[in-house]
């Protein structure tokens, strides 16, 4: 209806929150709804508690992936990452503020009445959850109730659990493979102890200097004497203290730090000014100073089981609001398992994909969560660019997608399975084919995928004889030295030792002469029928009189006694003249 003659035409105003144009008479009620919606959304997207303050929090891990689909060239740059992922042109600020759960639920924004509707899809909510902090960091549990697995050390009746519950924290060394939850456990202890009035300070052995240790100690002393507050010091990657600091290594020095640091440090662990929690992926018996080790309780964490990984992934699925599709289920049918209402979620993930991810990440939760994040991110990005109107409705993340996600975020490498054998075979063949680039590539694929360096080193020792042999006898020395080097210093420092050896082998001349000849001998033995020929008497040793009487050693010509080459048979009579070095027909 046209406004009545003379009536004042109502002005349009822009909502300062969602930037929507609407009649000025509606602005107040709209604003209330909009702010409410924004608050609700912030709560829902940040449903996982934020970590405690920087001082008290165990350091965040260097994420093993940036929060953008790889290959987008947007890694680490949130704005570009968002663009690469096909996010709407609206900035995060605008999108966030326009989203709410009023009315029909999360798919519907706080839409102004009267002039169209601003519908923000749950896909947008999802996109925001996928960007910024890596999923693994966002989902790092703050309490034991979200900490999955490791029952052997944290079960209901375990000593550690009762110590944690009674806030009695002893000095600990947390030893376990990557991504099994060492830092997370320290994080939980940090939260616990803060509630109990303790300080929690973090140092990373990769970046801390001696002065940092001294500062921590003197602060801890002050806190104890002035406020009776104890300090827990978390040292991540404790095994790296010596190596990254490039200090002179003396086996008896605490942490291999200069002596003035150890002089101040150890007594304070002992008298309780500082409670030490160290995390390491390396065997502490070799990597942590014995004096310190004897004052700490070593907690051995294991690779997370497939079931534990599934639980961690399901928590991520719920956080992202994905729907899980059982076998044979289609996106349109009612999906189960994610715990979110089907009307809310437009992105699906196959149950099989989750199982595969749980299996392939080899007990490393960070790898699993990164893989999930990348797979979903990539699917959402593709879905948005191909779908009409950029909607993400009906996107399904399949097993293939998570495998791809894993391959990009980490290295798809199944240490226990086929990939382990495929990669070592590819390495062996590349060195044999003298392709130094391919050799290095396969080596890196394995090591970056978490392969045991000693497994590779053992193969190199074998290769030195099998494929290089007497063409360069030094190759064997190289390989054995590489094996010992790996054994002594472990990963990641030993990677370059293996790389050097692998390149040496790729470039070395090759000879299978010995390998083939030995194979011929084995074949000869296998093919023999009847009793094996006796050792010729003249080759036998005769340590007793009886043996001498039996003719042992009789007629043996002791070579050093002869100036000229000696005519003598060394093979059994029936093999006289056999030549194992002759090439056999393959
Ligand atoms: N037991 C667990 N329960 C739940 N989530 C876990 C668990 N372990 C690891 N995670 C998840 O994996 C991420 C990485 O774990 P965390 O940093 O604790 O591993 P870590 O053992 O310290 O690894 P690294 O040796 O590589 O530093 C965490 O942010 C968390 O999201």
What does this structure look like?
This protein is α/β, with parallel strands linked by helices. Among the domains are: 150-300, P-loop containing nucleotide triphosphate hydrolases (Rossmann fold), CATH 3.40.50.300; 306-409, Helicase, Ruva Protein, domain 3 (Orthogonal Bundle); 418-511, Zinc Finger, Delta Prime, domain 3 (Up-down Bundle); 530-575, no CATH class. 45% of the residues lie in helices and 7% in strands. The chain contains 24 helices and ten strands. Strands 4-5-6-3-7 form a five-stranded parallel β-sheet, with helices on both faces. The protein has a three-stranded parallel β-sheet with strand order 8-9-10. It has a two-stranded antiparallel sheet with strand order 1-2. A hairpin with a 6-residue loop joins strand 1 (12-14) and strand 2. Helix 15 runs parallel beside helix 17 (399-409), helix 20 (453-468) packs antiparallel against helix 21 (474-489) and helix 20 (453-468) runs parallel beside helix 22 (495-507). The radius of gyration is 34 Å and the shape is elongated. The termini are far apart. Mean pLDDT is 73; it is low at 1-9, 38-120, 243-264 and 333-345. It binds adenosine-5'-triphosphate. The site of adenosine-5'-triphosphate has 24 residues, from helix 5, helix 8 and helix 16. It comes from Chloebia gouldiae. Residues 44-57 have a biased composition (Low complexity). Residues 74-83 have a biased composition (Basic and acidic residues). GO terms for molecular function: ATP binding; ATP hydrolysis activity; DNA binding; enzyme activator activity; single-stranded DNA helicase activity; zinc ion binding. This is ATPase WRNIP1.
């Amino acid at each position: 209806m046209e406004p009545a003659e003379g009536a004042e035409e109502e002005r349009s105003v822009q909502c300062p929150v969602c930037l929507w144009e609407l009649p000025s008479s509606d602005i107040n009620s709209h604003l209330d709804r909009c702010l409410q919606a924004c608050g609700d959304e912030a709560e829902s997207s940040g449903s996982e508690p934020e970590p405690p303050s920087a001082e008290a929090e165990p350091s965040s891990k260097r994420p093993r992936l940036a929060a953008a689909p790889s290959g987008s060239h947007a890694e680490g740059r949130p704005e570009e990452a968002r663009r690469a992922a096909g996010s709407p042109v609206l900035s995060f600020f605008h999108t966030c503020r326009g989203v709410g759960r009023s009315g029909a639920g999360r798919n519907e924004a706080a839409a102004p009445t009267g002039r169209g509707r601003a519908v923000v899809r749950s896909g947008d909510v999802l996109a925001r959850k996928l960007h910024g902090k890596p999923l693994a960091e966002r989902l790092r549990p703050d309490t034991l109730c979200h900490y999955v697995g490791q029952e052997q050390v944290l079960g209901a009746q375990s000593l550690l659990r009762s110590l944690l519950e009674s806030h009695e924290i002893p000095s600990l060394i947390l030893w376990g493979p990557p991504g099994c939850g060492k830092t997370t456990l320290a994080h939980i202890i940090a939260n616990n102890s803060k509630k109990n009035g303790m300080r929690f300070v973090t140092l990373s052995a990769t970046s801390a200097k001696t002065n940092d240790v001294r500062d921590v100690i003197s602060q801890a002393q002050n806190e104890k004497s002035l406020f009776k507050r104890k300090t827990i010091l978390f040292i991540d990657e404790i095994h790296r203290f010596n190596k990254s600091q490039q200090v002179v290594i003396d086996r008896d020095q605490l942490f291999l730090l200069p002596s003035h640091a150890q002089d101040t440090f150890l007594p304070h662990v002992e008298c309780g000014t500082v409670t030490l929690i160290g995390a390491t992926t390396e065997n502490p018996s070799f990597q942590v100073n014995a004096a310190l080790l004897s004052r700490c309780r070593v907690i051995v964490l294991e690779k997370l089981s497939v079931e534990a990984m599934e639980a961690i992934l399901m928590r991520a699925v719920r956080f992202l609001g994905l729907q899980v599709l059982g076998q044979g289920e289609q996106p349109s049918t009612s999906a189960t398992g994610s715990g979110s209402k089907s009307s809310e979620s437009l992105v699906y993930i196959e149950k099989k994909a989750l199982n595969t991810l749980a299996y392939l990440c080899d007990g490393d939760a960070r790898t699993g969560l990164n893989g999930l994040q990348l797979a979903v991110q990539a699917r959402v990005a593709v879905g948005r660019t191909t779908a009409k109107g950029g909607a993400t409705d009906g996107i399904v993340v399949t097993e293939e997608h998570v495998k791809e996600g894993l391959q990009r975020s980490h290295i798809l490498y199944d240490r226990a399975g086929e990939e382990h054998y495929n990669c070592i075979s590819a390495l062996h063949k590349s060195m044999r084919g003298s392709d130094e680039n391919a050799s290095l590539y396969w080596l890196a694929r394995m090591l970056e995928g978490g392969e045991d360096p000693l497994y590779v080193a053992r193969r190199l020792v074998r290769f030195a004889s099998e494929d290089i042999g007497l063409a360069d006898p030094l190759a064997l020395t190289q390989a054995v030295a590489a094996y010992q080097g790996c054994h002594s210093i472990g990963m990641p420092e030993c990677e370059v030792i293996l790389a050097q050896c692998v390149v040496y082998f790729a470039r070395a001349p090759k000879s299978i002469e010995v390998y083939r000849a030995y194979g011929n001998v084995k074949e000869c033995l296998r093919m023999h029928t009847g009793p094996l020929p006796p050792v010729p008497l003249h080759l036998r040793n005769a340590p007793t009189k009886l043996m001498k009487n039996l003719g042992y050693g009789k007629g043996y010509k002791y070579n050093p006694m002869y100036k000229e080459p000696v005519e003598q048979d060394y093979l059994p009579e029936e093999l006289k003249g056999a030549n194992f070095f002759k090439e056999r027909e393959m």
